[in-house]
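Recall that a protein's primary structure is simply its ordered list of amino acids. Everything else, from secondary elements to tertiary packing, is in principle encoded there. The following example makes that idea concrete.
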Amino acid sequence: MITKKFVLLDIDYITRNQEPVVRLFGKLLGENEEGHIIVLDKSFRPYIYVVPSDPSHIADCNIHLSDLNLLSVEQVSKNDMGELKEVLKVTFKHPQDIPKLREKILNLKSVKEIREHDIPFYRRYIIDHGLFPLNIVEVQGKVLNSARSSQRPPKTGGPEKSPAPKPCIFQVEKSPTPLESSLPELKFLSFDIEVYNPRGMPQSDLDPIIMISFSSNQGFRKVLSTKNTPDSSDPNGSPLDFVEVVAHEKELLEKFVETVQSENPDVILGYNSDSFDFPYICDRAAKLGVPLKLGIDGSSPKFTRIGFSNSAMIRGRVHIDLYSNTRRYMHLAHHTLERVYLELFGEGKLDIPGDEIHIYWDEGGRRLEALFHYSLNDAVAVTQIGERMLPLSTELTRIVGQPLFDVARMSSGRLVEWYLIRKSFEQGYLVPNKPSSAQLTRREGKHVVGGYVKEPVTGLHENIVYFDFRSLYPSIIISKNISPDSLTSGEDCHISPEYGHKFLKEPVGFIPLAIGQILQDRIKIKSQMKESRDDYQISVLNNQQEALKRLANTFYGLYNHSTFRWYSLKCSESITAWGRDFLKKTMEDSEKQGFKPVYADTDGFFATYVGPMD
């Protein structure tokens, strides 16, 4: 058997001979290795858990299930909210069988409910195999393709880059092995399009693409254009060394595909590319008959629904729309490319109003040159913003264990939920179902009292000190063992102020255990930062601790979020009640030591020292 190592970038599955085949897309590592790999694994099958109506008659449930077209049924023990249960692990032949048979299974009298039926097949695979995207994976098996280089004929009209090698197609014969690793360097390719729009807002059925600009984090910069400046001495050449002129829009799109293939990036960056650039490119390519073979497997972009918007997915290359990314992490009134660039780098960038682009194009000459520079600057700005913003997303990817394409588009709450789903598998817990519409209706009208706030004392204050609780709410969750599976009515327990909700002292609850690991890891990383003298290592470690901090600070608010799988009003009420209690008592203690609180909010307070000075 042959062994290959690669950085896991993407994952999906295809159907061959009516069976699912998982595909792992990655960047090859090792001596004499270059390009990308597509690993095929046909050994994995989808499954769900069936909870019987009567635990003592689980055998009857098994018999009823045997009448369905299933691959296997196995009795297993799982922890369900602190209670050990015997359930049935039902394995299917194909992921599409789950939605087909779900209702039939639920309608069986011997079945109470089904669990984990809504975990996508590709996510189930990486969770069950302990794989983390952007980490290194080792596989053993055989190479299925012999040709490793592209056979595209070179084009005339300028220097050509060597064609990118074809991806290695690899069939696994043993389960993939995850390896501990730091984040290997990834190649980014940013792009931006300009559209001729004399009628105002561009319309893809009418207005052509006139320029496409590129920038990579390895120094590549280029603008493709369907028009040259009239004062160029060479009518077939370019007035600027970064501009390449093509005959028409169809060739422009073909050259776009060729550039992506030859540059062979791991990550493709755009700005509003989910909503504008890629939909527009796809529409124009369809109109002109240009195949958009941008994926590692030669596939065209596909649009998938994530949240409330469609996202452009390119197989084997991680497409990131930095517009949605900056909206999530940067609190600005406007998130234009110019505004975000100014905020991050403290300087403006060349800007041309969108409704004037056609004027610059028509006038040519110096104005067209300015448009060339503007287009390139947009692509370069996207690369620079990506280098600044993406490290947080890449570290979250390596912690949560979901693909970067998904993580870059997930809310903090969704990230926590997938982190907990992975932890559930690792610790033998059943994942709660998403709430039904009726449950959502009941939850949405309920509110929890927040943190304590003391209105500021008016006036000018001196000798100000600030008392701050470090990770107050996460610490309360851990110290008071606040988790749905820890709620109890017994004795010898933690009792929350105001409400009297009770939580077991032992064993440690599922969520306190998960959040405790996050805080421990963060403390360890911050300690490494203090010891390090390497600026790059400190930067990497800082991104890691910021990612962990973001996850930890999200937990407490989710207990009262209506869509959260581990929703618990009692847990949410208890966290804020203990928070208010700790803050008030600390303020009282400070007054006994000569301090006068002048303002308080949730997890800290300001005070002046009024006691005797030493």
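The longest helix spans residues 365-400. The mean pLDDT is 91.
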